[in-house]
Each structure stands twice: as C-alpha cells, then as structure tokens.
Amino acid sequence: MVYRNFRINIIIRIILIFAIMVLLTYWMVGGHYLRSAYTGVLIILLLAELFIYIDRLNRNLTSFFASLLADDYTVRLSDFRKGRSFRKLYETLNAINEKIKFLSKEKETRSQYLGSLIDQSGVGILSIDLNGKIFLVNKAFRELLGLNKARTGMNLGELSKELLDIIRKIQPGEHQLIRWMLGETEQPFSFQVSRFKLETQPFILVTVHDIRAELDEKELEAWQKLIRVLTHEIMNSVTPVVSLSNSLNDLLETHAEGIKDQKLKDRLSDGLEAIIDRSSGLMKFTTAYQNLTRIPTPKLKVIQPSDLLKRINTLYQPEIEDKKINLLIKYTGKPEKFSGDPDLLEQVLINLIRNAAEAVEGRVDPRIVLIIEENPGYQVRIKVEDNGSGMNKDILDKLFVPFFSTKPKGTGIGLSLSRQIIMMHKGSIEVTSIEGKGSVFEVLI
Fold it and tell me: How confident is the model over 231-258, as pLDDT tens digits?
C-alpha cells in the first residue's frame, strides 16, 4: 500500500475484502467452486493482512509504553502520515513522554539532594521496618554508633541485635538516654523513635544525637559552681585562722619568758606551727582550685604546628632524655596552620606529656608519641600516646572529674583544666586506654 493514512488504508482494505466476498458469492452461485476456493483463500489472506496492519500499531504503542515503564524516555512516535487523529495522538503521547521524563529527572534530583542532605547531617538517622530491614541510614548514624557496615537493604538485627532490641523498646516520641559501647569506652547518646506508614507498610524512624558535649558543658558548669562555693567558704574560714594563728605564735614568742613550764610552751609552739602550716597548705590548695574557674578567654591566633612542636620539644627534651624516654613526634606537614590560643594549648600538651612520662616510668622501652594531623570536620587532631600501664574503666570514667587523681600527691586539677581549655576552643578531648598496653589522649579542635 502506498498510502500511509490509517483511515484510507483501512477503508481500502475493507472495500477490497467486501468486493472479493461479492465475487466469491457470485462464483459460488454460478458453480465455479475452484475459483470460489481460491477467492476464499484470498479473503483469508486479506483479513490476516488487515489484522497484522492493525496489530502493528498496537505493537508500536505497546513498545512505547513499555519504554516508559523501563524509564527509557528516548522513544518517539514520529509517523504522522497516518492522519490528523494519529498526529494528535502521537503528539500527546510524546508530550506525556517529555512530562514523565521531566518529573522523573526532578524526582531524581530531589532524591539526590535529600539523600545528600541527610547524609551530611550531624544527627544520626535510621529508618527500618518492623523486621529490622534498613531502608535508610546516614553517615552520622554509622559513625556515631560504630556500625560502619550498616547499609540499605541489610537487617539491623544481624549487625547488632542489642541495638534493634533497644529501638523496639523505646516508645514513639520518647527521648531516651542510651549508653553505647564504642570500642573500650562507653558513650552517652540521645535516642528518639517515631513510627509512620507509607501506604500500608509501617516503618520506624530513629534519630541519634551525640550529647557528650552538652553533658560535659553541664557537668563543667556544675563543678565550677561547686568549686566557687567551696573555695569561697574555705577561704573565708581559713584566712582568719591563719591570721589568728600567726598572731598567737607571735604573742607566744614575745611572752615566752612568762611561761615557766617548758613542756607546755613547746606544746603550744608546736601546735600553733602545725595550725599555721596546715592552714597555709589548705589556702594554697584552695587557691589552686580557683584556677579552674579563672581560665582566661582564649586569644585566638594562627598557630603553625611546626612552631608548637618545636617549643614542646625544647621544653621537654632534656627531661625526657634524663628519664631515658623515647619521645617521637609525627607531623606530615598538614594541617599547615590552625586557630587557637598557643599559650593555653601549650599548657594542655605539657600536662598530657607530663602525665604520659609518669605513666611510662618503670616500663621496658618507655615511649611517648606526639602526633599532629588533619581530621575531617575539625581544624586539627593532636594525639599523645604512651605505652604505660594503662587504666581500667573505673578510672577512665573519673579521669576528668575535678579533685580526682591517681597520684598520691596529685591535686586532680591538670586534666580538668585541660578539658576546660579545649572546650573553650569549641573542641573535645577523649581518652582510650588498655590495661597493660598504654593510653591515648586525643584532642580535637
């Protein structure tokens, strides 16, 4: 057929079939059976060709819609010579194709944007069904809880049955503080669970917040208030005692001749001197703790790590060599600089290295490693590692508490002061330790 117009093609085929059927009738009436047979076969062939012609259009439309279902938007219906009605149909179907393509692209763009937004969030986010199958998990969730293997499509129960049980026990909308083990340390996290449905399928949405910084700030604030009250009351009580004891001691020396009993005079003198010594020691002790509430505001400057390491090495190298401790400094040249108060940070590092030096005393091949390196999300990471005797969990939990010390003559100020300094730099200080193997103090700024 030379005509492409669908209507004309159908009309011609129908007219031709009708004419041949009339011819078949004429020959059958006239007794021409052989011709009638040939004509019947021809009618069947024409009907089959008509069916194939119509079916070709169906196949084209089926192929077009199948491509849409397969997200293939490159297919176009372009045979407009079948007539005006088909031209409008094809134009409409191609317009639908473009619309679906645009909506699909927009959906994909939004999905990528939301996925990137969720993945970059500092809040841990997890979505699972009632069986524990993971449908969404972001980077923060994996890093906060140490579940680096968690991926979409996996079952949370296979990764951590304990965590799945915790999530299932939390009531929707409830905030719950959970202490989660990360390696050798226990960290506090705030969990919140909500439940929702997509169509008929129920899901559980879990958000996890790292509240260590908030707890540290609240704890620090409480300790500072307590220390202010204690030091104020102690100083108010001890100062007159010291003054009165000195006055009485002066009177005793002035009028010593009036006391005939030498034994009594000696007891009075020794007693007053003991009161003066202990009162003076208590005043010095209290004054030292007042430093915890009098840390100056950091004066931020640009710090070159190489200069900071040079000053630390100059200060400690003689002492380290005398104790036969191997001090290793690792710095690859990055970061090239960071912002901080050099004097306060130097004080922190000196305290950490001094503690490390005391920890490795008596160890075979005593060693301290000072590391400065880059860390994603922070300006710099500073680590002080030692191969000392390490600490148990009970000591680690109290290590930064004011007044707590593992040393017989320690005041418990050094690490508390160091933590406050780092927190004033909007950073954090953490410690990990294994008994018999050593400790690692990590400062993030």
Answer: 655 655 566 666 666 666 666 666 666 6
How far is C-alpha 295 from the chain's CA centre? 30
Token pair for residue 340?
């901080």
Q: Please tell me the CATH code under which domain 301-444 is placed.
A: 3.30.565.10
Helix axes 414-424, 342-359, angle to 10 degrees: 150
Q: What is the pLDDT of residues 382-428, one digit of tens each?
A: 999 999 888 887 787 777 776 666 665 556 677 877 888 888 888 88
- The DSSP string of 70-129 is TT--------GGG-HHHHHHHHHHHHHHHHHHHHHHHHHHHHHHHHHHHHH-SSEEEEEE
Angle, vertex CA 442, rays to CA 439 and CA 445, nearest 5: 170
Contact predicate 380/373, CB 8 Å? yes
C-alpha dihedral, 285 to 443 to 314 to 310, nearest 10°: -150
Cα-based distances in Å from 37 to 18, 21, 24: 16, 12, 8
- C-alpha closest to that of 3 among 71, 82, 108, 85: 82
Sheet architecture: strand order including 367-375:
326-331, 367-375, 378-386, 438-444, 428-434
Domain boundaries, the chain: 6-99, 121-210, 215-293, 301-444
| CATH architecture group of domain 121-210 | 2-Layer Sandwich (3.30)
Distance in angstroms (rounded) separating the CA atoms of residues 286 and 281? 9
Q: Give the type of residue at 434.
A: I
Place of tokens 């707890």: 215
pTM to 2 decimal places: 0.49
